[in-house]
Amino acid sequence: MGNSAPNAQPVDSSDPYARLEQTFPVLSEDMAGRIARFGHCETLADGDHVFHRGERGVDFFLVQTGEIEIIDHGDHGEEGIVHRHCARQFTGELDLFNDRKILVSGRAVGPTEVIRVPRADFRRLIVAEPDIGEIIMRAFILRRVALMQHQQGAVTLVGPARSADTVRINAFLTRNGYPHRTIDSSSDPDAAAFLEGFGLGAADLPVVISEEQILRNPSTHDLADALGVAVAIDQQRLHDLIVVGAGPAGLAAAVYAASEGLDTLIIESTAPGGQAGTSSKIENYLGFPTGISGQALAGRAQVQAQKFGARLAVSRAATGLDCSGGHFRLQLEDGTVAEARAVVAATGARYRKLDLPDYARFEGAGIYYAATAMEAQLCANRAVVVVGGGNSAGQAAVYMSRFAAHVHILVRSEGLAATMSSYLIDRIVASNAITLHPFSEVCALSGDTHLEELVWRDRRSGEETRIEAGALFVMIGAQPCSDWLQGCATLDDAGFIVTGDGCSPFETSRPGLFAVGDVRSGSVKRVASGVGEGSVVIQAVHRFIERQKTDAMGCGNN
Fold first, then answer.
1. Shared-domain flag, residues 103 and 162
2. Of 216, 378, 430, 538, whose CB count within 10 A is highest?
3. Does the entry feature the keyword Chloroplast, yes or no (predicted)?
4. Is residue 63 situated within a structural domain?
5. For the chain, what is the largest distance between any 2 Cα atoms, rounded to a whole number of angstroms?
């Protein structure tokens, strides 16, 4: 990659390291001069570090003379060179837009002069110099993609590939864009020796290993803290807006709020994207004629929000909201409290579960609520069953048909026409790898450590069908994630948030508390409508905050 790692593998056109001019651009002298106005010159000696893996809040560096090499650290402390930045090239990747721990180190090679741009001034640079900002943003995104593809700056996950905890950790790392390599302890012949080298055994699995630490079957929350994915929340800070939920609606609200100058905090329990983030491909979203994966769409929106200054706190589920005072106080599961003038609830909905014996035992171990590359790998060349008749179920079936031996779709009704977009129905009908079973429901599950067989029943005839199955994808109904709002907003009989009580169609029964996306009663359950609601609601948020500030000033003058 430019002056790339000597052990780098051959690349293809989809590899960012094959796109050197975009991934590691050399800026013009004019651009370099404009960047210099935002920072100051520093001289480095050979071997001086400018940042270390694990640090937070590192600065932006533009090389003037000499080189800065970017270092990847292995599990055993070994070093690999990711890239050497030469004159008019710059350091950094997406972690410059947030407070996460950085994944790599950087040090000078020979006498080197750089322009150091402090973090706050870097944000001013991105806004003030849009042409430079566009080049930097593209490079940062490509660099993160490359780190993930080449497993650089990575941790190692070791465990049985089909165990629920291994799947949980793998999904968290993948959806949060954290580079990692996975070793399947149940099939990899080298796994035992690898574990022995760290003094680990089967009882420790799954385990996450990095240069700094060993985490034995960590909870998602503990994993986020240990890897620095989680960021600290200033409990003394009064935010203008807290957006709860980082699905399409929440991310859209954050982008528009932050871009219009509101001090914005996003709270997300797992990873950006919500249900849409687990979709293999969304083909009817405006502006993407060839489709885009839910994770890619969410990743771009997340970067966009952070570019404008929004802060994202991942692995911080909301557990309650105190709306009794002049400001909102949001309680999080770790005991943290975040305060804001206004709140946008965008927590979406979760799929309903089937009422079956052993269902809980197989969740994450054969029963999944997302159909991504990770799940496809787990059940390749085996039959799979998809339960549900909506677009998410259709997208899952079409995607999995590329990997599974066969895909069976079960719906309780007579067909798909009433619930699924016609382009997906046409694709399903045309596929020899997909079979639709109307008036059918799963009635039994079986397996040892993971799902191996299931039975479904025809509701009309009572006939039962038993098959060996690699996975069961459950994508039915919607349960709103609104428990944390009890006492602060009116909910309908199904638990969705009722809106339209105030001066905005998105305001709840409590002024200053808004709801958008799938969690809102009467919303259209589509990505585009969620994005639209999230963008439009900010106008009402502005009006509320302005009224609140005006009222406070009036009280102070009495």
1. no
2. 538
3. no
4. yes
5. 81
